[in-house]
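for the recovery benchmark. tokens below, seq after
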């Protein structure tokens, strides 16, 4: 059993052992290549995810009209303004835009609504069409 045949040729144990070792080396090299390829794919997917979030945030910031800029200048954060702009959007989606949970997105939205109820922002809330949602009547009082 010292000699084996391969494709009609006789191989000694030493030749067979070296063939197995070279095959192992090839498999190991291909496995390393595969691991690096998987790591590269993960990195690209992460970059795509970051780029997608950046695009979403850029689109959201482009939506800032003069009134929304006025809201930011009056002391509201960009997150609060975006959450008010997206009142019809589910909190889970808004949270994904910010990279936070839906619960945290709800907290941001509630704080933004509370800020808009402040008397100095009543006119701005009315111009933005938020007065009904924030329960502000025409006499600048909360209902």
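predicted aa per position
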């Amino acid at each position: 059993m010292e000699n084996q045949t391969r494709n009609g040729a006789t191989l000694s144990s030493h030749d067979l052992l070296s063939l197995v070792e070279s095959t192992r080396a090839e498999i190991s090299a291909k496995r390393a290549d595969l691991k690096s390829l998987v790591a590269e794919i993960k990195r690209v997917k992460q970059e795509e995810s970051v780029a997608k979030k950046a695009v979403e945030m850029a689109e959201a910031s482009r939506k800032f009209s003069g009134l929304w800029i006025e809201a930011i200048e009056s002391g509201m954060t960009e997150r609060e303004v975006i959450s008010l702009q997206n009142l019809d959007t589910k909190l889970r989606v808004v949270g994904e835009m910010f990279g936070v949970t839906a619960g945290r997105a709800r907290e941001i939205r509630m704080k933004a609504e509370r800020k808009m109820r402040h008397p100095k922002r009543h006119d701005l809330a009315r111009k933005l069409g938020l007065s009904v949602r924030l329960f502000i009547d025409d006499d600048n009082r909360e209902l």
